[in-house]
Write a structure and sequence with these properties.
With 414 residues, the chain is of the alpha/beta class. 34% of the residues lie in helices and 28% in strands. Strand 9 and strand 10 form a beta hairpin. The longest helix is centred in the middle third of the chain and has 18 residues.
């Protein structure tokens, strides 16, 4: 692969303010590269340096091996086409007339489009599934249809590089998927290089070959999707608590945003709770106690379990065991120690089988903290052994049964 786009130590901005700071990055021909980052990080400003709407204060931008500032507008337009966030036509042009504007870089002054130009226009509209809209006025089209017309105009330029500036920002999920699938198809089948500014991290993860992260005008990460869609990479950039999971349907990682990161302002109430959970049974309970300022620990959880991923994303103490393994005596002892160190122990509404029955039997040895047991929908797959232990704990007064609503109130009022 050869290089189609390169930023070399680019610093630029508006007036005295530098928005982009010493940014370097290259895009190879045939790549699908996404640029992500929080609002105000400079993503659109970087796009403006490609179109020469904004010149670098220092550094250089290269397009197809040529220094960008030395190119004429027509030369630049033959290399790259830009799809903006929102296109507002100044006149009610027909769709085919909008697409035909993509042929202007190839026309001489006062020259009209040729039959070959119109063939390319029709081909571009066919690629985007908009040929049936060619006689419709742009003002009569839906947001998704209008955006596909703008993409058609970009394709009519026959660019080597297609730059997308948050192309789905104003579209619903249906049109967003249509546009992103179209981009991936053009990239794969036509070999068009894609450089996309995206605000949707999951879309970037699903469709990109590579992701570049921009924060505060500086590049903070650059690499394959699997190296970027990680909690340790994204949490400090977006200031949110999040979990990264593999989407089995799309075979791509995805983030689940939990909340704005509030650790710096979250007031601890000085109390500790140990939550015995698994399989998602503890998620609401963990969230409830955590948000109310409790110091939370969890166990025993299998690595990769959904409750494990949530606890890990929050930086909680976790008593963990290998997946598909029964709880070992050593791990059980660690679980008991964490429970005894807490002010309160909660057994969540988790299914109990022989592999995790020690999560119940350990409660018999817990002394000191109050034990709360939530059993509303969970199954007992131990032949009744787990149920017997729970009944004994309640009958002896060592534990008490609670509802989910009661548990929520306890987390808030204790």
């Amino acid at each position: 692969m050869s290089e189609i786009l390169r930023f070399e130590h680019v610093t630029t901005g508006y007036g005295e303010k530098d928005v982009i700071k010493d940014f370097s990055c290259s895009v190879q021909k045939g790549e699908f590269v996404s640029l992500i980052g929080p609002n105000g990080s400079g993503k659109s400003t970087l796009v403006h340096t490609i179109t020469e709407m904004l010149s670098p204060k220092s550094g250089q931008v290269f397009l197809d091996g040529r220094e960008n500032s030395t190119l004429t507008q027509k030369e630049r337009a033959r290399i790259t086409a830009v799809v903006p966030q929102n296109f507002v036509p100044g006149f009610a042009f027909k769709a085919k007339e909008i697409v035909a504007m993509g042929r202007h870089p190839y026309l001489k002054r006062m020259q009209s489009e040729t039959e070959e130009d119109y063939r390319i226009v029709d081909e571009a509209m066919e690629q985007t599934g908009t040929l049936h809209l060619r006689e419709r006025k742009i003002t009569q089209l839906s947001g998704g249809e209008r955006q596909r017309i703008i993409i058609s105009a970009a394709l009519a330029q026959e660019p080597k590089l297609l730059v997308l500036d948050e192309p789905t920002n104003h579209l619903d999920i249906q049109y967003t998927l249509e546009i992103m699938e179209l981009m991936k198809k053009l990239n794969g089948e036509k070999g068009i290089t894609i450089f996309a500014v995206l605000h949707d991290i999951n879309m970037a993860a699903r469709f990109s070959d590579r992701i570049v992260v921009l924060d505060g005008g500086e590049k903070t990460a650059d690499g394959p999707v699997k190296d970027i869609i990680r909690e340790d990479v994204l949490k400090p950039v977006y200031s949110i608590d999040l979990v990264v999971r593999e989407n089995s349907l799309t075979s791509s990682p995805e983030i689940i945003a939990l909340r704005s990161s509030r650790e710096s302002v979250r007031k601890l109430n000085g109390r500790r709770v140990h939550i015995i959970c698994g399989g998602g049974s503890g998620s609401r309970i963990i969230e409830g106690f955590y948000n109310q300022g409790w110091k939370v620990s969890c166990g025993v959880l299998s690595v990769g379990d959904s409750d494990y991923e949530l606890a890990r994303s929050l930086g909680l103490e976790i008593i963990e065991e290998k997946p598909y393994s029964p709880i070992s005596d050593k791990v059980c002892e660690a679980n008991l120690a964490a429970a005894c160190h807490a002010d309160m122990v909660v057994l969540a509404d988790v299914d109990i089988g022989m592999s995790n029955i020690k999560n119940v039997t350990v409660l018999k040895d817990v002394s000191g903290p109050e034990i709360l047991i939530l059993r509303e929908n969970a199954g007992d797959y131990t032949g009744g052994k787990a149920g017997e232990v729970i009944s004994e704990l309640v009958a002896s007064g060592q534990a008490r049964m609670v509802t989910e609503g009661e548990l929520e109130g306890i987390s808030q009022n204790e």
